[in-house]
Amino acid sequence: MVAVSDAEVFLTGFPGFLGSALLERILARGDGPVACLVQPQYLETARQRAREITARIDGDEDAIRLYEGDITEPDLGLGETSFGDRCELYHLAAVYDLGVDRDLAEAVNVQGTEHVLEFAERLDVDRFHYVSTCYVSGRYDGVFIEDHLQEGQSFNNHYEETKYRAEVAVRDRMNDGLPATIYRPAIVVGDSQTGETDKYDGPYYLLRLLLAQPAWLSMAFSLPDSSDAELNVVPRNYVVDAIACLSDREETAGEVYQLCDPAPLSVPRFVDVIAEAAGHRTLTLPTTKPIAQTVTTRLESSLPLESATLDYLDHPTRYACPKTLQALEGTGLEVPPFESYVDRLVAYALENPDVGDEAMV
After folding, report:
1. Is 359 a member of any domain?
2. Is the predicted pLDDT of residue 106 greater than 50, yes or no?
């Protein structure tokens, strides 16, 4: 039996990008010890990151307990497990990859979440916190808010569809009485203060495409419906600060919160802002999606591209977050305008060219 007798928090998704930052916030607010489920291949990285976190907050090294396991296994690979009288569970582990294979997405995002839900039920946790995504919306045509979920939408990729099905599973347990809160971030980029990130995906493909071309003239795609589409981006520090704040309040149980930008940039404006920050004169080429996908697929081996990102250049969904804005009113937490921190994202990318785009799986 794995016994974590005095752990107050159980967390999946460490040492991932969001999980690491959220773990630090949880400890800084005085909760813990925290038991972290870590895949064996990331154990040494987790140990190093745990030491860095406890050093920054001047905390006890025993405040972070690492346990080898995997959400794709029954019992999370832990066997029988016991906790103390009080335990909250934060489930962040997922495959964050737009081009993910169907079977892998199914195993991690859907079956993995079901395993974590069963684990939480056996432990009779006091609270379950689940990190979903705004993109459970799929290609919903309209404004998607916290109350929306099963709207008959189609999906851009296996990532969106499996995260949708995972949230449906969480919502079913909530309807059966599980005290849970769901958080739906939009597209998460680096820290708005430092620019730090550990993965160049999503909007970073656009930045890296521009940086791979001459500054005096770089090229980007524009699809027929791009002018009407929005690219909803939020920095990591806003996402983890909002989750840390909302998860620390009893009245947020049973709610869904979208952590999105209430005033996002249109796709053309987003491209212009990225190009200006990178110091590149950019020519946007109007084209059809099939042509753009063919060109992107052929260039993927030589340029930093991901054809799956093209679907977000004409994404029909707009996101609103009325519940989140109301819940965070008076806290000082709000999404900074993308223009206010894009220079930091670009500077970090220029100074750290070796950061990859691979998902943690």
Report:
1. no
2. yes
The span from the CA of 350 to the CA of 324, in Å, is 34
Q: Residues 238, 207: one domain? A: no
In a domain, 6, yes or no: yes
pTM (2 d.p.): 0.95
Element spanning 298, H or E: helix 289-299
Pair 96, 130 in one domain: yes
Cα–Cα distances in angstroms (integers) from residue 278 to residues 108, 203, 215, in the given order: 36, 13, 8
Average pLDDT over residues 226-250: 96
Angstrom distances, CA of residue 311 to CA of 13, 65, 308 = 27, 40, 6
Which of 313, 293, 306, 307 shows the shortest CA–CA distance to 356?
Answer: 306
What is the rounded distance in angstroms from the CA atom of residue 163 to the CA atom of residue 186? Answer: 13
pLDDT band at 361 (very low <50, low <70, confident <90, very high): low
Question: Is there a single domain that holds both residue 165 and residue 204?
Answer: no
- Cβ atoms of 195 and 236 closer than 8 Å: no
Residues 148 and 99 in one domain: yes
pLDDT at 333: 97
pLDDT at 82: 65
Domain that holds residue 225: 200-231+265-317+341-351
Measure the CA–CA gap between 321 and 147, rounded to whole angstroms.
Answer: 10
pLDDT score of 1 more than 60: no
**Cβ(338)–Cβ(273) under 8 Å?**
yes
Please tell me whether residues 219 and 102 are part of one structural domain.
no
Q: Measured between alpha carbons, how far is residue 108 from residues 46, 54, 101, 231, 274 in Å?
A: 19, 29, 11, 26, 33
**What CATH number did the domain enclosing 44 receive?**
3.40.50.720
Using the predicted structure, report yes or no on whether residue 267 has a pLDDT greater than 60: yes
304 φ, ψ (degrees, to nearest 5): -75, 80
Do 120 and 221 fall into the same domain?
no
Residues 165 and 224 in one domain: no
* Count of domains for the chain: 2
What would the two tokens of residue 208 be?
């890296």
